[in-house]
């Protein structure tokens, strides 16, 4: 009989822990590749607790009792969601980084306790930090050979066995052999025999393959060992291997069963192997060291070249953005007509937007779950609508939609905030919206010298909000992949410090980032304006050194009903008009009838 309640599942896990002589267990949202989005088979935290967010962890003590025996650890994005989805009688709520897991365990587990963790779901960096936090209480971290949740999760889905697909060179712009050769040169220069590549998007990029194993990210479950001679070993389930894949990879890539990966690591005696500290599971380093290999931690050598898009990838992005922009414009026109009735809800709007994307052809998936946020929900930056939270879009209110698509030539991500009539927005709404717009324009128009990091540009976007004594609690921009992850490192535009990965990475020509400042009034409304931009060289007469700027890739009308024209400078008005002139140029050939007339109206000079 299946366990239907989260209390029953928690009790079953505790019995399993006791049978293994473990005093507790850590449950992250993670898979063996440290992916942002994970397959259904890896949704252990959701199964155990009911939490549906994309980041968080739980700790369960075997001898639990109300108020002390288990805790949820989430960041500020999920403060509301965790309380809605996770039973407070079963779990305490703890906010990270202010209330770290290590401190909670040290305070609540018995001295000498044995706390289990799955070494395939955590990095070695995490293990080292936790051991440091627990040593004062004599608490021991114990790697488990098999995950205890899997032992009690009776109807756990199997990992996807969908075939891996070839990503053609006319879309990739560079062959897998060329990419492997570049990685091999780096390995030789650094003195390594091999690199273990476990991030799924890095494997997909390096081999020019894609898959359907993870929702929202077109990757195939696998591992790769890239070698200094340019060859590689791909560890992948046999069911996923097609004749086309075998032919595409050629003789230089040996295809092995995914089940052979762990034994293969243990056989690399005497080899010098590099592992990524952020994407390599702790088990990888542990198995290598046990087998006699020398292990070093370095950034995955595919990450930076993957982030620097070649000319073919850049053009693919432009083509995908144009197609996507027409779909989003049709949706915004539909929304303007239908939403003032008060009968359109958040789920209906999200489904309608997907329908428009599918109608334009070539959509393979969304690039993330659409944020369709009405009224006060728009004040939650990472809101995810579901059947329980779904609400109708109120007339005379702000509606925010953050969405994207996966197309074979590129990945899109766009946010538009619009006023739903009738009536007029308040002066406060106009003020905040216009300040966000001014920050968005400042990033778009930025010119900066070679070597500039994203953290050095972040204040460009915030300055107008800061002048009014307000701010937003997320980054201003993230990297975006080419028919890969919608959140791609290493580049970011965000405040430095606080462990913000990527904020010190210099911005380089070919990198694609989002430009998405925002403002959120708790319980009231939220605003975000997001386009994607490409870093490119800037020709400046008399310039001393290399200078760069951004070329906008996203072209969809920005809502004019929320703009306070008097707050804009002449240069900002000129930017607005030039941007919308380009929007019309790109979208008009794809639209007709009322949709075309709507875009023409929205693109009229401000």
Automatic annotation (TrEMBL):
Belongs to the peptidase M24B family. Residues 9-146 form the Creatinase N-terminal domain. The keyword Hydrolase applies. One of its GO terms (cellular component) is cytoplasm. This is Xaa-Pro aminopeptidase. Pfam families: Creatinase_N, Creatinase_N_2, Peptidase_M24, Peptidase_M24_C. GO terms for molecular function: metal ion binding; metalloaminopeptidase activity. InterPro entries: Creatin/AminoP/Spt16_N (IPR029149), Creatinase/aminopeptidase-like (IPR036005), Creatinase_N (IPR000587), Pept_M24 (IPR000994), Pept_M24B (IPR033740), Peptidase_M24_C (IPR032416), X-Pro_aminopeptidase_P (IPR050422). Residues 317-536 form the Peptidase M24 domain. Residues 546-606 form the Peptidase M24 C-terminal domain. It comes from the Bacteria. The lineage of its organism: Bacteria, Pseudomonadati, Pseudomonadota, Alphaproteobacteria, Sphingomonadales. Keywords: Aminopeptidase, Hydrolase, Metal-binding, Protease.
């Amino acid at each position: 009989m299946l366990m239907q309640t989260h209390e029953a599942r928690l009790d079953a896990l505790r019995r399993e822990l006791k049978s293994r002589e473990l005093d507790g267990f850590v449950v992250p949202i993670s898979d063996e590749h440290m992916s942002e989005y994970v397959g259904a088979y890896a949704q252990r935290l959701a199964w155990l607790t009911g939490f549906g967010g994309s980041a968080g962890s739980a700790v369960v003590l075997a001898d639990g009792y109300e108020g002390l025996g288990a805790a949820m650890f989430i960041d500020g994005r999920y403060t509301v969601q965790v309380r809605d989805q996770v039973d407070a009688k079963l779990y305490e709520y703890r906010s990270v980084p202010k209330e770290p897991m290590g401190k909670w365990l040290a305070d609540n587990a018995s001295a000498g306790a044995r706390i289990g963790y799955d070494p395939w779901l955590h990095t070695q960096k995490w293990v080292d930090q936790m051991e440091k936090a627990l040593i004062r209480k004599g608490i021991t971290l114990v790697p488990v050979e098999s995950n205890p949740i899997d032992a009690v999760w009776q109807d756990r889905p199997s990992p996807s066995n969908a075939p891996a697909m070839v990503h053609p060179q006319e879309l990739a712009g560079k062959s897998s052999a060329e990419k492997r050769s570049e990685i091999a040169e780096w390995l030789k220069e650094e003195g390594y025999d091999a690199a273990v590549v476990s991030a799924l998007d890095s494997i997909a990029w390096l081999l020019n393959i894609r898959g359907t194993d993870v929702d929202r990210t077109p990757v195939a479950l696998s591992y790769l060992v890239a070698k200094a001679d340019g060859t590689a070993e791909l560890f992948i389930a046999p069911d996923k291997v097609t004749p086309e894949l075998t032919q595409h990879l050629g003789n230089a890539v040996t295809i092995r069963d995914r089940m052979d990966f762990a034994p293969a690591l243990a056989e690399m005696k005497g080899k010098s192997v590099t592992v990524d500290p952020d994407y390599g599971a702790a088990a990888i380093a542990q198995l290598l060291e046990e087998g006699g290999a020398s292990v070093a931690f370095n950034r995955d050598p595919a990450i930076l070249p993957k982030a620097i898009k070649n000319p073919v990838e850049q053009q693919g992005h432009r083509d995908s953005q144009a197609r996507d922009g027409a779909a989003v414009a049709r949706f915004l026109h539909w929304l303007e007509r239908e939403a003032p009735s008060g009968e359109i809800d958040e789920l209906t709007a999200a489904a309608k937007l997907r329908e428009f994307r599918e109608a334009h052809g070539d959509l393979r998936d969304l690039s993330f779950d659409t944020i369709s946020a009405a009224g006060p929900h728009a004040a939650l930056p990472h809101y995810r609508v579901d059947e329980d939270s779904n609400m109708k879009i109120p007339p005379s209110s702000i509606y925010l939609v953050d969405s994207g698509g996966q197309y074979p030539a590129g990945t899109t991500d766009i946010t538009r905030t619009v006023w739903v009539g009738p009536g007029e927005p308040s002066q406060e709404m106009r003020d905040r919206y216009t300040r966000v717009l001014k920050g968005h324009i400042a990033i778009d128009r930025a010119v900066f010298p070679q070597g500039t990091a994203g953290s050095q540009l972040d204040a460009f976007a915030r300055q107008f909000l800061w002048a009014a004594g307000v701010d937003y609690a997320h980054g201003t921009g993230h990297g975006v992949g080419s028919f890969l992850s919608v959140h791609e490192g290493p580049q970011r535009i965000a405040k430095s410090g606080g462990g913000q990965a990527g904020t010190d990475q210099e911005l380089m020509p070919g990198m694609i980032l989002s430009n998405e400042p925002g403002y959120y009034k708790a319980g009231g409304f939220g605003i975000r304006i997001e386009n994607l931009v490409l870093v490119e060289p800037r020709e400046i007469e008399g310039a001393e050194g290399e200078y760069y700027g951004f070329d906008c890739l996203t072209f969809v009308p920005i809502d004019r009903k929320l703009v306070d024209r008097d707050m804009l400078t002449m240069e900002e008005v000129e930017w607005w008009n030039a941007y919308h002139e380009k929007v019309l140029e790109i979208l008009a050939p794809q639209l007709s009838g009322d949709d075309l007339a709507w875009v023409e109206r929205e693109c009229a000079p401000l």
